[in-house]
Amino acid sequence: MAGHRVAHATLKGPSVVKELIIGLALGLAAGGLWKMHHWNEQRKTRAFYDLLERGEINVIAAEE
């Protein structure tokens, strides 16, 4: 029984390469989400100005 060894996980310091890859992946994911949001807002703005130019809507309040 004296010869039994228990395998323990050895704690190491931070892996610089692993942290760089994780940071890059998270940054690209967040950037992609931000660009999709920006493109959606651009599409809404473009649609608004197209309707305004065609005269289908106006921004002047109707007088009562």
Automatic annotation (TrEMBL):
Question: Which keywords belong to this entry?
Answer: Membrane, Mitochondrion, Mitochondrion inner membrane, Transmembrane, Transmembrane helix
List the transmembrane segments. 20-36
Spell out the InterPro entries in the cross-references: COX5C (IPR008432)
Where does it live in the cell? Answer: Mitochondrion inner membrane
Where does the secretion signal sit in this chain?
A: none
Q: Which GO terms describe its cellular component?
A: mitochondrial inner membrane
Q: What is its main location?
A: mitochondrion
- Sum up the protein's function in the record's words: This protein is one of the nuclear-coded polypeptide chains of cytochrome c oxidase, the terminal oxidase in mitochondrial electron transport.
Family, as annotated? Belongs to the cytochrome c oxidase subunit 5C family.
Q: Which PANTHER family match?
A: CYTOCHROME C OXIDASE SUBUNIT 5C, CYTOCHROME C OXIDASE SUBUNIT 5C-2-RELATED
Q: What is the name of this protein? A: Cytochrome c oxidase subunit 5C
